[in-house]
Amino acid sequence: MEQLVRENKPLRVGLEAVDNAATIHQEREWDGAELKSPQQLVTEIDFRIEQRIKERLSAEFPTHAFVGEEEGSEGASESVWYIDPIDGTTDFVYDLPHSSISLAYVVDGVRTVGIVHHPESDTTYAAVAGEGAYRNGDQISVSDETDLSRSLFGIGFSQNDVNSQTLRTAFEFLIDETLGVRRYGSAALQLCYAADGTFDGFLHRNLGSWDVAAGTLIVEEAGGVVTDFAGNSTEEQLFEGDVVATNEQLRDRMEFVTPS
Ligand code: IPD
Ligand code: CA
Ligand code: CA
Fold it and tell me: What CATH number was assigned to the domain covering residues 148-253?
């Protein structure tokens, strides 16, 4: 990956920006978490990380635009950085070790670079379109498990989504057919667990573009497939935030994925 970092400026600067902002995450000092909407916490750390990342990126790429979870959209350009400063704020606030910083570089609507950093283990996942996926510099690939009954899946949901029949059907299928399901606080990090074979797959509905932009590229570059719950895998569709990520063999066994 060293050569890739040398030759790909958005990757290099993106990694530097995330690395630098991670020091704010590690300080873990904030004045109280606020509810920004029902069941959604935010801290001043979320804002500070987003601002720090934007400062670093703007210095190198003054014309690029941003879509950040906390500060919204800024600028107009075909080159856009998607930022989730803390994915898994609830876990962060409750001192659970499963949050991440997610950053993606998107050009003309196409995911080009994806970076997810897990501060608690100092692990960085990164991918460049067409150039593979990496964990702390080493190339990674999705699990080669083909047997559903031996597969472990990550899942996620937002509270207002639990009554969704699509989600219930999918969860029932996984609970019945797989070895087990796990739910951690960061969707972006769970996508990376699907990318490096820790999980055999991951699914979630209704995520934000900043949640999925980096992690889905990392899964695909690790040889996995990502679709929505109707089997679509276009860029536009993935940005809608419904994701089923796994390897090709298990993907064919996901009976709940129903083409619309
Ligand atoms: C949340 C996390 C969580 C997912 C929620 C997201 P946030 O992001 O990704 O895993 O289940 O739907 O909103 O709010 O912590 O950035
Ligand atoms: Ca998030
Ligand atoms: Ca967030």
Answer: 3.40.190.80
